[in-house]
Specification:
single chain; 321 residues; Beta-lactamase; seven-stranded mixed β-sheet; 7 strands
Length: 321
């Protein structure tokens, strides 16, 4: 009866799209949805209440209420085709701008460096204090990559060759197990080498997470951040603290809010098609996970830097810390 009840609730969660732990999900049609500021006013403050169930064999079921609230944040995007998702675990509430786009899975690009770092740190594959990797001597387009580099520098410089090597050390089996555990988007690492990425055929600069087989939605990104850093995290405090150290925003915004995040950007035929900033923020004992996504927008400058700027503004101006 317990299992039957769990299955029934899980099916309900999939149908509503609001269960926090929904498992690896199939990549839907790749469509960009341009936000309509007029229609947003009609759905502003609309809430959907759903019931989710967390259950593992040998544990008790936990039922809770969570809501999804559509928000009118078009002013932050200034005509950019984008979406924002903030999940407030303490309130059990999602705040979502452009719900349709928030559900579409796209390549995570360099935001996946959070995940490869998490796995390597948790399993002792990576020791941040002894993490220098030797540069091959190949000249890359990003000058900051053309040297021996350690974990902290590689993360902040988004050094692809460093994390390509780290992914190979983690290995396909462990990577797949950990993505399944995180319910990370479609969990598809089948294109391990990244051959589907038509922008680059350099083995040192390609991978399943770069415009390839792996895909995740903005809503799923926020959920994954909650699984990593939230109160129910299965990861060690040491691993979380090491990740926070490398992810923390260093700019002083004049507040007590700590923001931890990672940018990511992908191109197709020379055009930016995916730009991200995703992470976690906390202050005064309260925390939220978040994701900002920008898709291709004609006549607009789409970048991960812009996604980061939008995220910081929303977190500081819209959240009641």
């Amino acid at each position: 009866m317990r299992i039957q009840k769990w299955i029934a609730n899980a099916v309900c969660g999939v149908l509503t799209g609001a269960a926090l732990l929904s498992g690896c999900s199939k990549k839907p049609d790749e469509v960009y949805v341009q936000a309509d500021s007029e229609s947003e006013s009609d759905i502003l403050q609309t809430e959907t209440m759903t019931e989710a169930v967390f259950w593992d064999e040998g544990q008790e079921e936990t039922e809770f209420k969570q809501s999804e609230r559509d928000v009118q944040w078009s002013e932050y995007f200034d005509g950019l085709n984008g979406s924002a998702v903030i999940y407030d675990a303490s309130a059990g509430e999602y705040m979502i701008y452009n719900r349709e786009l928030a559900a579409i899975q796209r390549s995570p690009c360099s935001t996946f460096k959070i995940i490869s770092s998490l796995i390597a740190l948790e399993h002792g594959i990576l020791d941040p204090d002894h993490s220098i990797r030797t540069w091959s001597g190949e000249t890359f387009w990003n000058e900051s990559w053309n040297r021996d580099i350690d974990f902290y520098e590689a993360f902040r410089a988004s050094c692809v060759w460093y994390f390509r090597e780290l992914a190979d050390e983690i290995g396909q089996d462990k990577m797949q197990q950990e993505l399944n555990k995180l319910s990370y988007g479609n969990c598809d690492i089948s294109d391990w080498e990244g051959r589907l990425n038509t922008n680059n055929n350099n083995r040192a600069l390609t991978g399943f997470w770069l415009e390839s087989s792996l895909a995740i939605s903005p809503k799923e990104q926020a959920e994954v951040m909650e699984r990593i850093f939230g109160t129910g995290s299965i990861y060690s405090k040491k691993t979380q603290d090491q990740l926070k150290q490398v992810m923390q925003e260093t700019e002083d915004y004049g507040t007590n809010v700590a923001i931890y995040g990672k940018t990511g950007m992908g191109k197709a035929q020379g055009e930016v098609v995916d730009a991200w900033y995703t992470g976690y923020a906390e202050a005064e004992g309260r925390s939220v996970s978040f994701c900002i996504y920008l898709g291709q927008t004609d006549g607009k400058d789409v970048s991960s830097t812009k996604a980061r700027e939008i995220a910081v503004r929303i977190l500081l101006q819209e959240m009641e810390w």
